[in-house]
Amino acid sequence: MFLNIFAAKSQCNSGSENVYGSGNVWIGYVYGNAHLGSFRGRVNEGSAVSPDFDQNFGGSNVNYPVIGGCTVQTETFSVRYRLSKTFTSGDYIFTVGGDDGYRLSLDGGATWVINRWTDQSYTTTTYTATLNGSYNMVLEYYENGGENRISFSLAAICSATENTSISGTGNTWNGYVYDGVNFDVYTGMVQKGSASDPAFDENFGGANVAYATSGCAIQTETFSVRYRLSKTFASGTYMFTVGGDDGFRLSLNGGSTWIINNWALHSYTTTSYSASLSGTYDMVLEYYENAVDNRISFAMQTLSLLPITLQSFTAQEKDHNVQLNWEISSDSNPRSFEIEKSVDATSFSAIGTVQSNMNSATQYRFTDQAPFRGTAYYRLKMTDMNGVATYSAIVSIRLAVVSANKINIYPTVVTGNSFYVTAVANIRNAVITITSLNGNIISKQKAGNITAGQAVRVLTSAANTGKGVYAVIISGSDFGITYGKIVIQ
């Protein structure tokens, strides 16, 4: 009986300690102290498809089994892992983690590319290298006391080699994909559109997923894409419609100027632009996604001629409102006019619609009864009887504040669920109202009596507001009416 036990123990630490694993499977040589001494036996880590592993040895201060039926107590022990691996030419990133010490060698232990040989809680270290051929990898680990863990992972760093200045042709866009919202790190190319139509609508497979490119896959959060297309247009009028969540912009001259520019955080929205073109244009469509949902779309429509000829479009103040007047040519064929308003001449919202008057024809009017106090911008979306829409030029008007009472709003760009207002005078029975640009009341908050200089918190979350520009109206028993604005992001 004594001889059998002795024989079993001899098998635990028999054989060479210098053989390397192969086929992504490490051979680990386990030792009974923290100094790679007192050899106890072998273990294997990794698999046929990957050398990655994450081992905690069954817990702290327990018996960890090794090949041959032996065990090692998981306090003050160590392991030397060996793997011979052949790498195709490329860039690679190694990540090693450990509690306590660890170190990694690519030349059989002669030098260490990662070396954290010290007592520590679990931490990780990375190393990148350009490799080609076979390497004898050695990963050493020791545990001195408390918790224990050793991990290893290896990933190829894919590289994209395209010239990002080359435009697509034949209605097919070249899309250059970047990690980061400001075209930071180029990761690879995709193509959109088809031989017959440059239109496309892309949601990148969903929010926060891996999106494949010619090089690296990109995670669909905080990324950007620059699409390029060189296109020849026959002489005529064209309408472009771009939509996005978040920012997008379109250029016809290689990015020097933007005919559509909605470069801001927002849910999916579309913008259209019509232009008379003839010849070849270097089109650039840029897009970025900051968080949550993502989508970019492009469509183009050929217009044989302008469906509606607008001869004049004006805005004037009348009875504290804004009256818009426009006139079209007698040969126009309108179905409707949608009136849009903006406070920054970029992001427009519809505030009303005027149907065509098929009897009298040419002159139309619309009154904005909830005007913005300050500078506002208006344009017309004109739709003809065939459903073709074009946009007018933008007109602006500035309305003075109704009351001289001064208020301060901060912050004016709201990223949370509230903002603050202060007044330079006392206000009795104050009411703070938030409205959309088309005059719809979003929320109304009774603030009671406000003392001059007192900061009053105004909630936006309860109003179920979305991203955009909103008017803030403050009134009181002896205060009149004062206007301001906020931008909710």
Report on the architecture of this protein.
It is built from 1 helix and 36 strands. It has one helix at 2-12; strands at residues 25-31, 39-46, 53-55, 63-65, 71-73, 77-99, 102-105, 114-116, 123-143, 149-157, 172-179, 185-193, 200-202, 210-211, 218-219, 223-245, 248-251, 260-262, 269-289, 295-303, 310-318, 321-328, 334-342, 349-355, 363-368, 375-384, 389-391, 395-398, 407-410, 413-414, 418-423, 427-435, 441-450, 456-459, 468-476, 480-488. The protein has 489 residues and is mainly β. Strands 1, 2, 3, 6, 7, 8, 9 and 10 form an 8-stranded antiparallel sheet that branches. Strands 11, 12, 13, 16, 17, 18, 19 and 20 form an 8-stranded antiparallel sheet that branches. The radius of gyration is 34 Å and the shape is elongated. Helix content is 2%, strand content 57%.
* Poorly predicted spans: 1-10
Reported CATH architecture of the largest domain: Sandwich
Give the CATH level 1 class of the largest domain.
Mainly Beta
Helix content: under 10%
Q: Which percent range describes the beta-strand content?
A: over 45%
Distance between the termini: 78 Å
Mean pLDDT: 87
Give the tally of structural domains: 4
Total E-strand runs: 36
Give me the number of helical elements.
1
Look at the helices and sheets and give the structural class: mainly beta
Rg over alpha carbons? 34 Å
Biggest β-sheet, characterized? 8 strands, antiparallel
The outline comes out as elongated
Q: Classify the fold: give the CATH topology of the largest domain.
A: Jelly Rolls
